[in-house]
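Handout for the seminar on molecular recognition.
Each group receives one record of this type.
Step one: identify the two inputs.
Step two: read the structure output and locate the region that could contact NAP.
Step three: write two sentences on what you found, then compare them with the reference statements printed after the record.
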Amino acid sequence: MNLNLEGKNVLVVGASKGIGKAIALGFAGERSNVTAVARSGQLLQQLKSEAIELGCNSFNCEVKDIMECDTKAFAKELMQKYGEFDVVVHNVGGSLISRNHLGGQEDWNYALKFNAVAAIDMNSVLIPPMTEKKWGRVIHISSISANMLRGNPLYASAKAFLNAYVTTVGRCLAKDGVVMSAVMPGAVAFEGSYWDNYTRTDPARCEDFLRHHQAINRFGTPKEIADVVLFMASEQASFMPSALIPVDGANM
Ligand SMILES: NC(=O)c1ccc[n+]([C@@H]2O[C@H](COP(=O)([O-])OP(=O)(O)OC[C@H]3O[C@@H](n4cnc5c(N)ncnc54)[C@H](OP(=O)(O)O)[C@@H]3O)[C@@H](O)[C@H]2O)c1
């Protein structure tokens, strides 16, 4: 299947490692123009070398902490530098936040901003040019935790909020040719990841987790998530606005 992503202007927010890196490299291999955002300039430069080897059309590195900046102004700045984006992937997020379910608004606001609201703020700037030209793809990396509502309550709730945003706002955008979706990974391991470390420190609990919660009985790989993201960025996803897509090895 030809995804026809060559020359598309793609923004990946949270691209320096793990799932985001696999996504950025996926677009690089499709010869898209990629702008990659993360806090680590060193990791982004390494990624750029790998992307160029894969034949990437152009690759821009943007070092930014999206939790510590004016996200709307940052989105405007990105468009001024690199033009309007055809595809935006929001990958920043995670469960390594407060686990205090009785925490106050500081804890909950942080979880919501990290997993959803920073991306939503950027969308308010990045999406209007898409609706104007009647084509765009906005893909949020959510989590199967949003469906299962298990694990860290703040994380699961924030991803559930993100899914509700994608469902409702995705419907508003559908008639304008903008396909907003959420990809919901199950547990994914890669070198240096949470699950990779956990496998080393407590292999028995990891095996137990997989046996009871991930029917496939193994971790997913970043590429298995990235492949679905690339499909959702393509023309082939035209009938899938608001889709919430589990890529989770049959989580249970
Ligand atoms: N791994 C899993 O098992 C799993 C399962 C379900 C869902 N997910 C979701 O998938 C997404 C990626 O997960 P992952 O495991 O690949 O995460 P990760 O290894 O922590 O990578 C996150 C990426 O975002 C960047 N990032 C983090 N904070 C940032 C900030 N404040 N500003 C800018 N960039 C920032 C990181 O780069 P820098 O550190 O260089 O900034 C990195 O490139 C997350 O939304 C997560 O919730 C993951």
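Reference statements: The CA atoms of residues 32 and 44 lie 17 Å apart. The longest helix spans residues 105-126.
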